[in-house]
Amino acid sequence: MDLQQRFAALGRGIYDHHWWVIAAWILAVCLLRVFSPEWSSVARDGDLEQLPSNTAIAQGEKLNSAAFPSDVSKSQFVLVVARHDGELTHDDREFAILLGNKIGEALGENFVDVWNEKTPAIGSSLRSKSDQAVRVVVRLTNEFMATQNIELLRRTKQIVEDASNITPTGLEIGITGSAAIGGDMLSAAAESVQNIHTTTIALVAAALLLIYRSPRLVLVPMLAIGVATTVSIDLLAILAAWSQHHPNAWPEVHVFTTTKIFVIVILFGSGTDYCLFLTARFREHRSAGLSLRDSLTGAMQHVGTALVASALTTIVGLAMMGFAEFGKFSYSGPTIAICLAVTLLACLTFVPGLLATRLGSGIERGSESDPDNYWQIFWGRLADAVLSRPRTVLAVSLLLAIPFAWIGWNVNVTYDLLGELPAERTSRHGTDMLKRYFPPGEIGPLVVLAELPSGNLDSVDGQLTIAELAKPLYDLPGVEKVRSLYQPLGDPPGSVSLFSSEGLLALAAKGSPLTQAVFVSQAPGLAGRVTRLFLILDAQPFSPEAVASCSAVERKLQEIASDNQSPWHDARFALAGPTVGIRDLEQVTLADRTRIQLLVTFAVLVVIILLLRKPMVCVFLIVTVVMSYLVTIGIIDLLFTMLRGEGYVGLDWKVPLFLFVLLVAVGQDYNIYLVSRVIEEQRGGELRAGLRRAVIQTGGIITSCGIIMAGTFVSMTTSELNGMIELGFALTLGILLDTFVVRTIVVPAFLGMLSTSR
């Protein structure tokens, strides 16, 4: 029994037991709903936390935790209190201290302490040089992307708002810091999920109503995808909870807030396409006068293999992301692939079950809801035009594509995590305030950890040894200050007189026990052997300039360690802080992008060759999708350059990889459906006539599917995250190009050229 016969038998079996099939899916939904945890309780977030353990940031954080175990603060809120028209008054400064203490009291068990300008050793470093601004640092035990930070940020904003009646006139207050940025990003992601979910359902329902013009027929795909999405999300939540409690067990599944966004849009897009492929052939049989049972059997027989093939290419493509080193890539691809497999199962069982009920019986002979009836003439004329001059069509298409593809090949990306957030978000506003009064590097210093096995770094001689390390680092371009045990306030070496007020402050800071605890390890086994230096850069920590300074610091440390005359010869150095994290993120994800793009291309090519058994055609199909990707990303880069002007520095770093994987994998659905129909129509030996019939028969359904898929991706533009908005625009454009240019014109032209040559 071949595959077609097996699918025919499956169709007959489902028709005969359709209520049992429907009941099984409803039972699965109910059981998974009962046992699945809340998505927010299992979702992980943050980009730097997903880097592999062999990166510089991971090694630096490991040494930092071992050497300074009492430093329990993992994130902070930073209040920026400022006057733009003059120096702060005494009342302003007292108000800032009061406000910081109130916020600390409201944060409960997550609160560590408050640093303000009266804090020994470091207080003076919290004032701006102009005396127009002061910082208050509220330190927390939470990781910066902990979900609790959403609530803590809300409380902090509320306290600032409630204090408005006692705020000195003309005083500005901004809220920033890693906890504020993390809270804003998490709340923006949560809002994005809700916006995208609602918009996706509305757009898909509207598109299906336009196609079917019958609410009853719309219920079939909507019910099927709703069930598949619910089952998939709950299944992932259960698997993620299992992995949390069994970290070394198989399967290891991790999910993120953004995973839910991709699951929703891909399942609604691809799942609806699968439903349309099946129901389109079902309607053909119904229009031919076949019974409900025979129509369902025939649809499953002729479309089942193509559906599995289409889904398989996408599943294999997404699974290739599992070879990435970056955690968000390596876990997201396979988890979405699992969801797509669930959706395929629903379309092959639940959808036929629904069609076997009165929902399917509503599709009768000559149904006015059949869109192909209105487009036969159009698709026929388009096929004739393309097939009459296939070489000309291909040449013109290539000439039009090359300029945009060249731009796409050279597109720039940005790793600015703050740039993900809209300008009106609290932490963005606070960060802008901070940059007006303080060096941009104050947002997140670059931390140098130095381990000297033979040194007593907390002694007087140790301070001089630290000075010999701090001086060459301070001399590097891009370094504004170096805070160390030698100079806790970060003043340039030799720049402050001992008898000045600044000199007395620096001297007092050196002798403070807090200074010793901050800069030199007191941990058993590492006490006096490890010191920290905080480098304040003159660029914001996520910028290319800061990354360049980080690499320069790393090179200088290697030079110092290899210098036989240096007291730091053979010392061990490590780096921590957001800048080195961004540098590592860039290196890891660029390598991942190259690796995954090659793997996805090769894997999808192998799958479609095995399915279609036409190597030359399959290679061409892959080339068209890759070219479509380059053209798409080139056009999107031009679009955002025009929309954002000088503020645009490149696409979000996640856009190229996700765009490539989804276009190459998902885009093959239409290829397979078209070429499968061409093979079927050409079996009688009429190559050109068979190709023309295939284009006419599939034109309407491929267009409908493309519009629906584009509609699901356009819903991503309602996100609160700029990177997701860019990806939404890019995927929408890419799918539309695939639908209306590649699949409608370019592929038929190539197949027509092959038919002519034969």
From TrEMBL:
Subcellular location: Cell membrane
A Pfam match: MMPL
Membrane-protein topology: Multi-pass membrane protein
GO cellular component, one term: plasma membrane
Domain Membrane transport protein MMPL: 51-392, 429-757
InterPro entries: MMPL_dom (IPR004869), Mycobact_MmpL (IPR050545)
Keywords annotated in UniProt: Cell membrane, Membrane, Transmembrane, Transmembrane helix
Organism the protein comes from: Bythopirellula polymerisocia
Lineage: Bacteria, Pseudomonadati, Planctomycetota, Planctomycetia, Pirellulales
Stretches that traverse the bilayer: 217-241, 261-282, 303-323, 335-355, 392-409, 596-612, 619-643, 655-673, 694-715, 727-754
Superkingdom assignment: Bacteria
Name of the protein this chain belongs to: Putative membrane protein YdgH
Protein family membership: Belongs to the resistance-nodulation-cell division (RND) (TC 2.A.6) family. MmpL subfamily.
